[in-house]
């Protein structure tokens, strides 16, 4: 009798597993049908600014742009310290997951259930790139499922370095300022490849809330606090030493004034 009950329980468990599997596959294909394809974000496909120089070609007079002011650069032009600052803060398991961080997602769900909130998304860098490029920011179940499917597909097709390059050129760093190169030129009057550790930490700090944390906004103190948080995360991930962290925290950052158009009549 006991054996009979055990067999029935086992069959029921297997049946439920099969039903769940078939349900997941059905949901996957329902959403897949209408999804955009996560094709390559080539330099030519990403909006960039038109730059007007003087006759020497060295002095930038103005930058003409629409909604997105951007200058695309390859990952080789972005210092490793900037890449590490971003990964330590936004997605510490970036090189280990397959587009989504399952343990982080479950932790976020647990926190939201405990606190009865809906604020912990646990989105990876890949998911953030997909969301900012193809999807709306609406926090709905259908959007989240689409985001997960596209993120897994993007991670399957392209290398981590390629996705990171697209991300750092795609995301906003303030009002109308997109991509790390344009942000670096705007805030520090230097190319991204010349960013120092504290400057890179500040750039990574802006990513979470670009409009709120803009150096030209009203929340500079909050931005500097988050910059120190980024440095702490970098030290915790063993990207920098405690001494480097403490030294970087002491550096007083000087921001470029809001850029103005030079030679207005000519431009």
Calculate the terminal CA-CA distance, rounded to whole Å: 90 Å
Uncertain residue segments: 261-267
The total count of helices amounts to 10
* CATH architecture grouping of the largest domain: Orthogonal Bundle
CATH names the topology of the largest domain as Penicillin binding protein transpeptidase fold
Secondary structure: number of strands? 4
Radius of gyration equals 23 Å
N-to-C order of helices and strands? HEEEHHHHHEHHHH
What's the shape? elongated
CATH H level, superfamily name of the largest domain = Biosynthetic peptidoglycan transglycosylase-like
Quaternary form: single chain
Strand residues, percent: under 5%
Observed structural traits:
267 residues, mainly alpha, Penicillin binding protein transpeptidase fold, 2 domains, two-stranded antiparallel sheet, elongated, disordered C terminus
Structure description:
By secondary structure, the chain is mainly alpha-helical. It folds into 2 domains: 1-34; 49-250, Biosynthetic peptidoglycan transglycosylase-like (Penicillin binding protein transpeptidase fold), CATH 1.10.3810. 52% of the residues lie in helices and 5% in strands. The chain contains 10 helices and 4 strands, in the order αβββαααααβαααα. Strands 1-2 form a two-stranded antiparallel sheet. Strand 1 and strand 2 form a beta hairpin. Helix 2 packs parallel to helix 8 and helix 2 crosses helix 9. The radius of gyration is 23 Å and the shape is elongated. Mean pLDDT is 80; it is low at 261-267.
What are the SSEs and their pairings?
Blueprint (H helix, E strand, L loop, with lengths): L1 H31 L17 E4 L6 E5 L4 E2 L9 H11 L11 H14 L9 H10 L6 H17 L2 H11 L6 E2 L1 H9 L8 H10 L13 H17 L5 H9 L17
Parallel strand pairs: 3-4
Antiparallel strand pairs: 1-2
Helix pairs in contact: 2-8, 2-9, 4-5, 4-6, 8-9, 9-10
């Amino acid at each position: 009798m006991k054996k009979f009950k055990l067999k029935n329980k086992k069959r029921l468990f297997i049946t439920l597993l099969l039903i769940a599997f078939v349900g997941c596959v059905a949901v996957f294909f329902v959403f897949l049908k209408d999804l955009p394809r996560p094709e390559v974000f080539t330099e030519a496909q990403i909006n960039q600014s038109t730059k007007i120089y003087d006759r020497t070609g060295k002095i930038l007079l103005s930058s003409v742009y629409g909604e997105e002011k951007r200058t695309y650069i390859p990952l080789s032009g972005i210092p490793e310290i900037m890449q590490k600052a971003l990964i330590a803060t936004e997605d510490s398991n970036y090189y280990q997951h397959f587009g989504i961080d399952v343990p982080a997602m479950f932790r976020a769900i647990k926190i939201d259930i405990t606190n009865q909130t809906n604020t912990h998304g646990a989105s990876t860098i890949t998911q953030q790139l997909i969301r900012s490029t193809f999807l709306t920011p609406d926090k709905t179940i259908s959007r989240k499922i689409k985001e997960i499917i596209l993120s897994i597909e993007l991670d399957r097709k392209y290398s981590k370095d390629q996705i990171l390059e697209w991300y750092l050129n795609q995301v906003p760093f303030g009002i109308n300022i997109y991509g790390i190169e344009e942000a670096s030129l705007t805030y520090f009057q230097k190319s991204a490849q010349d960013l120092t550790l504290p400057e890179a930490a500040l750039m990574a700090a802006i990513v979470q809330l670009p409009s709120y944390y803009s150096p030209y906004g009203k929340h500079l103190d909050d931005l500097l606090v988050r910059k120190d948080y980024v440095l702490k995360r970098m030290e915790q991930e063993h990207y920098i030493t405690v001494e480097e962290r403490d030294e970087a925290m002491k550096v007083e950052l000087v921001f470029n004034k809001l850029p103005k158009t030079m030679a207005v009549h000519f431009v």
